[in-house]
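User: Some background: our group keeps a shared notebook of sequences we're curious about, and every so often someone picks one and asks for a predicted structure to add to the entry. Today it's my turn. The entry only has the sequence so far, pasted here. Could you supply the structure so I can complete it?
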Amino acid sequence: MAKERRRAVLELLQRPGNARCADCGAPDPDWASYTLGVFICLSCSGIHRNIPQVSKVKSVRLDAWEEAQVEFMASHGNDAARDAYESKVPPFYYRPTSSDCQLLREQWIRAKYERLEFTHPEKQEPYSAGYREGSLWKRGRDNGQFLSRKFVLTEREGSLKYFNRNDAKEPKAVMKIEHLNATFQPAKIGHPHGLQITYLKDNSTRNIFVYHEDGKVAFPGASDADLVPKLSRNYLKEGYMEKTGPKQTEGFRKRWFTMDDRRLMYFKDPLDAFARGEVFIGSRESGYTVLDGLPPSTQGHHWPHGITIVTPERRFLLACETESEQRAWMEAFRKVVDRPMLPQEYAVEAHFKHKP
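Assistant: Of course. Here's the predicted structure to add to the notebook entry:
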């Protein structure tokens, strides 16, 4: 009888919507919340265990199932739960994927099932308050120490500011929202709530690294139509590669690379405030392409798996340590090259062409 009940639960995974985790979309979920009626992945099941007053989980394949629990799962499922618990998700709320960090997935799960924010809008955090002020721990550019700094996010001015002292009248930096991106980087920063904020300063990319003990995140709003295109975007790819200089006679040097939309930036250290250089990668129609390997005459690289980025002005020679890293970078570059350029991206390209 126990085997039959377990087999019945396994068969429910074949129903539409149940083949992927209800919370992050990971394929082949092996766990289930038998109080919410959803199938979830191993990673999300750990988050569900932290809210036992709402969700109780079991392994689909290993645990014993009671008849009433099987019937409950059969009468619910991921699609039904999505209709119930996600009926009023704000258009600008970030829906995490299986590749996102623990913090984003935990806040999504808690907002959905514990706080019922997407069932009862009046319970939602003040995401659209238009003004937010508080303290974040910011990493010093030169000494690497994290110190508390006052941050002010204001919709009216369209900016994020930070101050070196709480009583300071003038901000240390003003970051325009239209040129700002924020991504969670817990591994890089060494804190589960670590955030990397990237913005343009004098037409060059600047990074600051911050964290907060509280994992809740909110941004001032605007109309949905204005806000949705400005949502934070994940980097297409990050990691170490080797590169050589423009004459291609210099030795290759190991650098940390970040692919942010069409900007390929490289740093000496992942936590550097400023990029050592940036490369704009346009579309195939505009003369950009990505080639597997390096020219036969190339010398000075230690890593064996090469990539050549061809732009209208020059070629950039890069090398990866492993074949899998090379494939991942090639995929990221080709996604960008295969995408037609937007009108505003031609202005960005022109800026890069005239950069000294």
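Suggested note for the entry: The chain is about 25% helix and 25% strand. The longest strand covers residues 131-139.
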